[in-house]
Design brief:
The protein is mostly helical. Helix content is 74%, strand content 0%.
């Protein structure tokens, strides 16, 4: 994906770049899908001795790369955030004269950087032939290749000072170079530094009203299913009534949509399994060994399909059904034909699923739409906290701390504390996004027309999910910029560099996140409010709430325009200053600080990337607010009913 984005950047026109970007987008979808499975697999390794196994089977590579599973997951998540930021920039890139100059100068060096990075990443793939000297050699080549790109970019930017260029071009290309440097720094520091991580102590045993209701609900459902086994009349009426009990027990879910999904998968698995059971009977009859021989390829096929998460439960039921039907009826082979036995299996599963479906909706129902809204509310609050922490880090880095403000989110006295806080926020956010993807799939099959005016809009909630990722990606970039600035020691001695304005935008974002999250907090169903033990006083959203949303969007739009205008003014001021010094026949090295000082140039690039990220953050927040406003109108008003 990284290589395809570099190829798109090196194109001369936008049409050619779209070809590479479309391929990169396909790979991005595959990565997102894989990361969902990775998160669930990572949770499963909590009780496994994974670190011990790494030390046993990876001992030859311990002194080269020594990452535990959490470090590996953090590396991949951070890497995909930076690569997607590169993709966003190339999508918005202006393929003009300034871009063509950069492309012509940087083409060979960028391709060499991509090659060196590929060789270094190949070292992360475990194999026994790699040595520490080879890793260090690849790492050195990677850093040297980026230094070459950096020096050539200084040359291009210096040449462009003599010509008039748009400030957006300078910002976007500086952001591109910053992302390249961030990826190199990430691979270097993460792989070769063995960190001691802090551990969070969680209280696993908590008194929770919702857990008690869930346990009580499970008890009632299992009790209803057990009457088909315990009561003699029903046990005689429904032969093999234990199948009804098993179906009722095995189709419970955390939400109504999750239970519906499990019921659908169990029913499909039962039908396919019953079909193979009948085929097995026609081929093997009542012969035990031939029956087992016929079942082996079916179980092998189901075992292979189980590797796909969306088919896991379905193929498990499909694999067990012919075993129960064919081998379970052998003691009664003379009195019960296999066709009747298979139909009995399907019939009683349908009865059990029907009972479970009714009980799931009637007894303390927890709808996926409620959990989805709660998760979105938590994610927006996480973004709001992230904005507040950025303000605090911003003041600390630029020595602009307010002595009267003692309310700090976290003690940022050490660099490691800041990085740990950012890493922990990123893990929480990505986990919430993974849960949202699952809940959207569950919510779309629930009877949402009971409480939403226009039903559940799957497309808008998926769009909402992607826009949350866009916002957090920009917040992550701003955090990375601040951490990079924190490493620079001579920031106060730089002339001609203007600091980005973030305070006003942070206040607006705080207000917007509060208003947006309040919608998802107040529009949950009454059953969920009772289930969680929190009934809100506000029973309906009125027109004034809609006006607040519209006012937030108007203010955000003004902020986007303001950021563009202010940066344009600052850039024009610097250009006029440079032109004036040029006309006075002075050497460029005397008034352009980054010509011979790579450290100052790195600060310049970081600040430019921060300017770009702040502008993109405001634009992403505006898009998110627009989507939430659409969801608000669809779900709570009658505006679109005539259509």
């Amino acid at each position: 994906m990284y290589h395809l984005i570099i190829q798109a950047y090196l194109c001369q026109d936008q049409i050619s770049a779209k070809i590479f970007l479309s391929r990169a987008h396909i790979i991005e979808k595959m990565i997102r899908k894989t990361m969902i499975t990775t998160q669930s697999r990572f949770d499963e390794t909590y009780y496994e001795p994974s670190r011990l196994l790494q030390k046993l089977f990876n001992r030859k590579r311990r002194y080269i790369i020594d990452l535990d599973l959490q470090d590996q997951q953090d590396l991949i998540c951070s890497l995909i955030l930076h690569i997607c930021s590169l993709e966003l920039l190339v999508i918005q890139c202006n393929f003009n004269e300034y871009h063509n100059n950069c492309m012509n100068e940087l083409k060979s060096s960028l391709l060499n950087l991509s090659l060196c990075q590929s060789l270094f990443i190949s070292c992360l793939i475990p194999h026994s032939s790699i040595t520490r000297d080879e890793v260090l050699n690849h790492l050195t080549n990677l850093q040297l290749s980026f230094d070459t790109v950096h020096s050539l970019y200084i040359k291009v930017r210096f040449q462009s000072i003599e010509n008039t260029f748009q400030s957006d071009d300078d910002l976007s290309h500086a952001f591109f170079l910053f992302q390249l440097n961030s990826i190199v720094q990430l691979l270097t520091k993460t792989t070769l530094i063995n960190k001691k991580k802090q551990k969070l102590v969680k209280n696993l045993v908590q008194s929770n009203w919702s857990r008690c209701l869930t346990a009580f609900k499970c008890m009632i459902i299992i009790a209803v299913g057990s009457v088909f086994v315990m009561i003699p009349y029903l046990a005689n009426k429904f032969e093999n009534g234990q199948w009804i009990l098993i179906a009722v027990c095995m189709t419970q879910g955390d939400t109504v949509g999750g239970a519906f999904t499990t019921m659908k998968m169990r029913l499909i698995g039962t039908l396919f399994g019953a079909m193979w059971a009948y085929i097995t009977y026609l081929s093997a009859g009542d012969d035990t060994y031939r029956t087992i021989l016929m079942l082996c390829p079916w179980i092998l096929f189901c075992g292979y399909m189980k590797l796909f998460p969306q088919w896991g439960y379905t193929v498990t039921v499909a694999a067990s059904t012919p075993i129960v039907v064919n081998l379970g009826r052998l003691p009664f082979a003379d009195s019960l034909p296999v066709g009747n036995y298979a139909l009995l299996r399907i019939q009683q599963n349908v009865i059990g699923i029907s009972i479970a479906l009714v009980l799931t909706i009637v007894i303390f129902p927890v709808f996926a739409i409620d959990l989805l809204k709660e998760n979105i509310h938590s994610t927006l609050e996480l973004c709001r906290n992230n904005v507040e922490s950025i303000v605090h880090i911003y003041k600390k880095v630029f020595h602009n701390e307010d002595e009267n403000n003692d309310k700090n989110l976290i003690d940022f006295s050490k660099f490691d504390d800041i990085k740990f806080h950012i890493d922990n926020e990123r893990r929480c956010f990505l986990k919430s996004i993974s849960i949202q993807r699952t809940l959207v799939g569950y919510a779309c099959i629930e009877p949402s027309c009971w409480w939403l005016n226009n039903g559940f809009s799957t497309s808008r909630y998926k769009k909402l999910l992607e826009q949350q990722i866009d916002i957090y990606r920009m917040l992550h970039n701003i955090n990375t910029c601040l951490l990079r600035m924190n490493e620079c020691l001579h920031i106060d001695t730089i002339d001609g560099i203007f600091l980005p304005e973030f305070n006003n935008l942070s206040k607006q974002l705080n207000d917007c996140f509060k208003i947006w999250s309040s919608y998802f907090y107040l529009t949950k169903t009454k059953s969920y409010q009772i289930f969680r033990g929190s009934i809100h006083q506000t029973t309906s959203l009125i027109q004034s709430d809609l006006n607040k949303y519209e006012q937030c969007l108007i203010e955000l739009h003004r902020t986007v325009v303001y950021l563009q205008v202010e940066h344009e003014k600052a850039t024009n001021f610097i250009l006029k200053y440079c032109f004036r010094r040029f006309l006075e026949d002075e050497l460029p090295e005397n008034f352009i600080p980054y010509v011979k000082n790579n450290e100052i140039d790195s600060i310049y690039i970081t600040l430019s990337a921060m300017h770009y990220s702040i502008a993109q953050l405001a634009q992403a927040a505006l898009s998110l607010g627009t989507t939430i406003h659409d969801v608000f109108e669809l779900e709570t008003t009658d505006l679109y009913e005539p259509f």
